[in-house]
Each structure stands twice: as C-alpha cells, then as structure tokens.
Amino acid sequence: MIRLILALLLMAFCAAAHAHKPSDSYLAVKAESGRIEGQWDIALRDLEYAIGLDADGNGEITWGELSARHQEVASYALARLQIAAGDAACTLQVTDHLVDQHSDGAYAVIRFGAECPAAGSLKIRYGLFFELDPTHRGLARIEAAGVTQTAVFGPDRAEQTFNLATPSLAQQILDYVREGVWHIWIGFDHVLFLLSLLLPAVWQRVAGRWMPAQRFAPAFWEVFRVVTAFTVAHSITLSLAALELVALPSRLVESV
Predict the structure, then answer these.
(1) 11 and 90 part of one domain
(2) Are residues 155 and 191 in the same domain?
(3) Are residues 197 and 157 in the same domain?
(4) Whole-prediction pTM value?
(5) 44 and 85 share a domain?
(6) Is 201 found in the same domain as 150?
(7) 172 Rama class: left (phi>0) / alpha (psi -120 to 50) / beta
(8) How far is residue 89's CA from residue 244's CA, in Å, rounded to a whole number?
(9) Pairing of strands 147-153, 35-43
(10) Residue 230 and residue 138 share a domain
C-alpha cells in the first residue's frame, strides 16, 4: 500500500511538472451615460494558435509582428463578442491596441467602445476560442453605476444577461463554484493533488502500517470537508483573477 501511495504522489508531482495555466481571457466592460467602454486581454499564445502571429517562425512574437496583424486580431476577436443594451445591439469599435503582461505571459489588449442606449440590462455573448479549445474561459468584469459584477463565460454559458440595477450576488457565487469544480475536473494535476489530500481521510497510520478507516461516517465527513474546501478555494482564486485583484507570477502557481 505504501508503494501505491508513493506512486500516486509521484504521478501528481510529474503531472504538476507538465501543467500549464488554462486558456483564459480577461474582459472588462464599463457602461455609463449611453456608452460602453471595454478592454479585452487575450493571450498571445492563444492568438498564435488561432490565427498565427509568429511571422518568422522563431517562437517569439514581437510587437512588430503583432502590430502588423492588429486588424486581423481585432476582427477575429470582435466577431466572437456581441454586446446588447436591452434589445439594442451595440456596434463595437476598436479604440486602441496595447500589450500587457499577465502572470502567464504576454497578452494582446484590445480597447473598444460603442454608443449604446441606456438600459437596465446588458447582454453579452462570448464565443472566443470555443471551437478550438472547449476548456477556454472568459473571465469578465462588468461595471455600471459604481457596482461591479463578475462572470465566467464558457461553451455552456456563452450568453449571459446582467441586471445593471440589481445584480445577483448569488448567481455570481454559483458561477464561480461551478467553474471551480470544472477547473479541478479538467486538470489532471488538480485531481491527483486532491487525491493526495483525500488519502489521509480514508487511510490511517497505525503501528507503522496504513489501515483503512474503520467507520464510514467520520471518513465521509472528512472527505466532504476536504473536497468542499478545495473547491471553494479554487472558486475564490477564479473570482480574484476575474477582478484582477491578485496576479501572482505563473512560476509560483503553475509549473512550466
């Protein structure tokens, strides 16, 4: 049994050594006075995979290579983002192109704006990269009248409507819990790490030997406590990332 445990821990270590940050983009939208302003940060590595940016094929994307493709980048991205104020569609216009550095590398930054009628709700349809990577997620921050809402867009929640007058905190919490579970499930290293946390709940060290737990109820509640804590913690990190409150270097949180 000890050999099995050591093997599982070794597998978890090896998986973590090859782990990488999931594909995410960061969308910020601010609505006020009949107009919206937005900023969309998209990883260069994802754009390279989707439309190709590395013109000389040397494995590095320069500002010159990116700036030469600004129009294509904007067209590709904005074709996969629709915003409507109430029932009126907003025509998005690019206002600037920048580059920003996130914890996992360089991101193309698209700033945009649109004239939109004042409305009590904002509907956003997000479809970036879903046809290439169904695990991609869009982390969104919507601000109106001094109130900030957050959301996670995925293939199963590509269209969401935000009540600008009375945002639903419960729905935001539910979204992040669901995405926390999803991020754990799709990450092989996450599953193995969770397994390593669960082993002490069902196996106990007695007289120099590993023995299975003798009673079901204590083992069940210990497993429940560990899984719940891990899921909540993962959900919190997603919300902090969406709000851009915390941005740790990727080498500290993800192996490369």
Answers:
(1) no
(2) no
(3) no
(4) 0.65
(5) yes
(6) no
(7) alpha
(8) 28
(9) unpaired
(10) no
70-124 pLDDT, tens digit per residue, is 999 999 999 999 999 988 999 999 999 999 999 889 999 999 999 998 888 999 9
3-state class (DSSP) for residue 66 = helix
Q: Does the residue 233 lie in any domain?
A: yes
Q: Are 241 and 247 in contact (CB under 8 A)?
A: yes
Distance CA 223, CA 201 (A): 6
Give the mean pLDDT per block of 10 residues along the chain (256 residues). 42 41 90 93 97 95 96 98 94 97 93 91 96 94 88 93 76 63 60 68 70 72 74 67 58 46
* Domain interval for residue 119: 24-166
Q: What tokens were used for 184?
A: 């754990």
Task: Sort 206 into a burial class: Cβ within 10 Å, 0-12 / 13-18 / 19+.
Answer: exposed
Asked if residue 178 belongs to a domain, the reply is no
- The three-state secondary structure class of 150 is strand
Burial class (CB in 10 A: 0-12, 13-18, 19+), 29: buried
- Are residues 109 and 235 located together in one domain of the fold? no
